[in-house]
Amino acid sequence: MSDELKKHIASAFDRDLEGIQAQILKMGGLVEAAIHDAALSLESRDEELAQKVVAGDKAIDELEELLNEEAARVIALRAPTARDLRVVLSVMRMSANLERIGDLSKNMAKRTSVLSQLAQIEGSATALRRMSREVEHMLKDGLDAYIRRDEALARDVIERDRDVDQMYNTLFREFLTFMLEDPRNITSCMHLHFIAKNVERMGDHVTAIAEQVIFLATGQMPHEGRVKEDRTSSDPALSANAGKE
Fold first, then answer.
1. How crowded is the C-beta side of 110, counted as CA atoms within 13 Å?
2. Which ranges of the chain does DSSP label H, i.e. alpha helix?
3. How far apart are CA 195 and CA 201, in angstroms?
4. Model's pTM, two decimal places?
5. With contact defined as beta carbons under 8 Å apart, do 141 and 150 qualify?
6. Residue environment code for 75-90, b if the CB has 16+ CB neighbours within 10 A, otherwise e
7. Counting C-beta atoms within 10 Å of the first and last residue's C-beta, which end of the chain has fewer, N or C?
8. What distance in Å separates the CA atoms of residue 104 and residue 210, rounded to the nearest whole number?
């Protein structure tokens, strides 16, 4: 193989990698917006904005499909090795996590129309938006860490998921209190708990994205296990309610 042909192949491969990395960042931007708008629609009871989030999930799904097709094509045609292969595999894993966050944002938005017909639970929408905002910021930093291959920032994102877990624990207990104080709050609180659990799961998916950044930067997945701060499934006082969403 001539040097000129080798350079041509390398250049084509670089363009392929740049293309799929640009798509993952575009997908990440759409998901950030979905988290933001879903939480805002809940807080403001804006059903039109909620429908925008639901409709916009299709674009996120289409990007994931496109990324998987492009990544498979690159692997089949370019046979990447070592670092380049890590990039392609990480993009596929990240796109799956982003798609799931998009689904969870859509689920949150779908609850807006239901909750708009029910009595408000004081402070709940604001607390959920604050929790969602933390996940949104984590995702932004996770994507920035990906762009820069910044292991330290990725580890910081993983640590911040503890805060999301703790917010969820607090909300869970508040919803239980509201339901015990007045049975008429049960329906609203069950919907709100479902949303809070979805946001907590978004944080887990962002954590998985940050782990892929560490994999890219170091060639190894982080070995140390992070202890989850979600205590609602192990707390004996809450075990009777833990499975109800």
1. 13
2. 3-44, 47-78, 82-115, 124-148, 151-181, 186-218
3. 10
4. 0.86
5. no
6. eeebebeeebebbbbb
7. N
8. 18
Q: In this predicted model, what pLDDT tens digit does every residue of 70-98 receive, in sequence order?
A: 999 888 887 777 778 888 889 999 999 99
Written as six digits, the tokens of 119 are 């009595």
pLDDT, mean over the chain: 87
Cα–Cα distances in Å, from 76 out to 17, 18, 85, 192? 14, 17, 11, 45
* 178: CB partners within 8 A, 6+ apart: 121, 185, 189
Give me the pLDDT at residue 6, please: 44
**Single-letter residue type at 205:** H
Query: Is 70 exceeded by the pLDDT of residue 197?
Result: yes
* Residue of 65, 240, 42, 200 whose CA lies nearest to 123: 42
